[in-house]
Amino acid sequence: MNDSKKQMKLSVISGLFWKFAERMSSQLVSVVVTIILARLLLPSDYGTVTLVTIFITIANVFVNDGFGVALIQKKDADDLDFSSVFYFGICFSVFLYLVIFFGIAPVIAVFYNMPILVPVLRVLALQLPIASINSVQQAYVSRKMIFKKFFYATISGTLISAVIGISMAYFGMGVWALVAQYLTNTIINTFTLRTIIQWRPSLSFSFTRLKELFQYGWKLLLQSLMVTIYGNLRSLVIGKVYSANDLAYYDRGSYYPNLIVVNVDAAMSSALFPAMSHEQASIERVRAITRRAIKMSSYIMSPLLVGFAACGTTFVSVLLTDKWLPIVPFLQIICVNLLFRPAQTASLQAIKAIGRSDLVLKMDIPIRVFGLTALVISVQFGTIYIALSEVLVGILGVILYSLGCRKTIGYKLKNLYWDFVSNVLQALIMGLIVFSIGYFVHINHILLLLLQISVGAVSYIVISIICKNSNFYYLLNTGKEFLHRK
Length: 486
Known about the structure:
Elements: H1 3-40, H2 43-64, H3 67-73, H4 79-112, H5 117-124, H6 127-144, H7 148-170, H8 175-196, H9 207-241, H10 244-278, H11 283-310, H12 312-319, H13 328-338, H14 341-353, H15 357-378, H16 383-409, H17 413-440, H18 445-466, H19 470-485
Helix pairs in contact: 1-7, 1-10, 2-5, 2-6, 2-8, 2-9, 3-6, 3-9, 4-5, 4-6, 4-9, 6-8, 7-8, 9-15, 10-11, 10-13, 10-14, 11-13, 11-14, 11-17, 12-18, 13-16, 14-16, 15-16, 17-18
């Protein structure tokens, strides 16, 4: 392996390590803070902020998506590109904030008959201009592949905002404790990242450069908007058609498997896209990175998901108590659906990296149309069928993205499917062993869960050695190289 390829490999591994560390540490702190706040605040406080954050999340798509990705993808992006996006982002986000302040906030409050939504939405929307600044900073960090900076910024924002939120909740400030936590997290994250990176906007602006970036970014922005609306729509439909308990079981059943996937998936996306963009002139190199990413991510995620599904009943009984056992079928179905995610993520990043944002949009539209159709049909039969319909959406997604991968980088379909299916098959063998232990062994649930986890980990390693899985040895060798470099 020549020096440039070896350096890129180590950069990708380093990026994955730091992004995963960032996501996991942030998630751990957030879970602890959520438990504490849940004891101090009323459910209505959470309901108010949850409702508002749906609209903030959608507005954030316009601020964060599109231009940031375009800056990373553009091969010769310079300071003029970054500065143009920086100033445009601030102006547009301020305009968006004024629209929310004077127009959207009062309308939403009247629609839901909740006057408190007006001040809460107006204050939380202050996050938009701050997020526009941070999106450019994050694009700079991603482009330079200095992901350690993300770790420091995220941890700072998470910890400081946690202290502020808990303190305000303790002194009885209710919903405003959650508002303060959410807003200060963004502020501290942005300020910290601005302090530790070298880039500063110059006094320059170009509509021509902005137009070039927009031609690539608007398709990704629209795709992200569709995904965001689609993701929130499902919960709204379940809450409207079925009971609050049904919605709680569905959401909790989705939440825990997604804790596994979101962290790994976010790390993959953040590290792979800039690496592929650097190599976009060489289709062979992009294909090689994509293939290795699918192999490695599916090798890591498949046993986690299959193992989680296999010991789901024990997990729920131990950590959530038996009253939450109805979430187990949802948990298991979502685990199956998420098995397709590694192939989808790596394929999507490859297509974006070589500049085919138009193809991303063309593929995503039929996926969302199919998903909405499946939702309309399945909602008539029950929430379990809504979960099952998501598996069909996941299968369609991996088929379309794989076709796009074959068209753009020449990644043969039989190779792509086998690269992740082979790992899934090994994980299923491990999962059968773990499930059998839970079925036949009758001991204390805590001991049973520890036994299932231990046997699952050991059996997967043994299966990898017996099957001579190249990913196992690649992971060992890469880990040694990464530690040696440190």
